[in-house]
Amino acid sequence: MKIFKDKVAIVTGAGSGIGKCLSEKLAGLGASVVLSDINKESCESVVAGIKSAGGKAYGEQLDVTDYKAFEKHIKDAAAKMGRIDYIFNNAGIAISAEVRDLEVEDWQKVIDVDLNGVFYGSLVAYKIMVKQGFGHIVNISSIEGVMPFPANAPYVAAKYAVLGFTQTLWVEAGHLGVNVSAVCPGIILTPIFDISPVIKIDREKGLAQYQPMFDKFGITPEKCAQIILKGVAKNKPIITVTKFARFLWTISRWMPLKVMKAVRNDYNKWRDNIRIEE
By the 8 A CB rule, do 98 and 200 touch? Predict the structure, then answer.
């Protein structure tokens, strides 16, 4: 993928998981990578690893919900590097809980990171890219952006919105020289749901319900990053990373009610087993 050589790429949520692997692979392909993460130590560790391998990178701590800080981060990168070729809006969080157990603050926290953070990064980078006449915005949605996923409503809502926003931006941006891609990874073996807050749910029992699916359909973040970059290199508007993700995308588009009923019936079989009542 020679297309990434000597390019400038911004990656959020770069301290772990998909973001870390994207940063490492981009640097390995010859890009100069600008990393950020809410966890300063993790970000610095990834930067150090890239540099020790001979890559070009720098990073800083960033809260993507802080628009002014995010704006400064991107504009500083553009000024320092001379341009921005790619931005990967990857930072994301989740809170596992049924809607009846959520507080407004829980909802706002997830929406702020998973939706507003993507919008902020896209907005600032887009304006720069329009002036440049080139660039590529890559927003990480989810297969949960096309189908329901119980006990995870804020995350699902944010990812649905990210997908819709990104598709709309794709429509608007094409004639301005800016490419746009939405990514629906599928099951990626990252710790996001292992470390996410849970409310009235037994974490171990909940994860156990999905473990067979993880074992059968899950892929590593390293492989995920490789597939994403191949899709970006081909300028795909929508990148479904795994075969399972493509299958879920297809049936959710063609048979949404059947999918909803199937998910509801499955969840109702084991919801009482994972729920913790006060």
Answer: yes
Active-site entry in 86, 120, 155, 160: 155
CA 111, CA 132: separation in Å to the nearest integer?
A: 30
Residues of the domain holding 257 = 2-274
- Yes or no: say if 93 and 159 are a contact pair by the CB < 8 Å rule: no
Structural domains of the chain, count: 1
Closest to 106 in 3D by CA, of 115, 96, 116, 91 = 96
Phi, then psi, of 133 in degrees rounded to 5? 90, 10
CATH of the domain at 78: 3.40.50.720
Q: Is the pLDDT of residue 264 over 90?
A: yes
Q: Is 155 noted as a catalytic residue in this protein? A: yes
- Give CA angle at 145 (144, 149), nearest 5°: 30
pLDDT at 278 over 70: no
In sequence order, the β-bridge partners of residue 275 are 201
Q: What mean pLDDT is predicted for residues 53-77?
A: 98
Q: What angle do CA 30, 34, 37 make, to 5 degrees?
A: 130
pLDDT of residue 196: 84
Helix and strand element counts for the chain (H, E): 11, 7
The residues pairing with 35 across neighbouring beta strands, listed in sequence order, are: 11, 59
Say which residue, 217 or 46, is predicted with more confidence. Answer: 46
Q: Are 14 and 23 in contact (CB under 8 A)?
A: yes
User: Residue 64 CA to chain centroid, in angstroms?
Assistant: 13
Q: Which residues contact 233 (CB under 8 A, 6 or more apart)?
A: 1, 3, 4
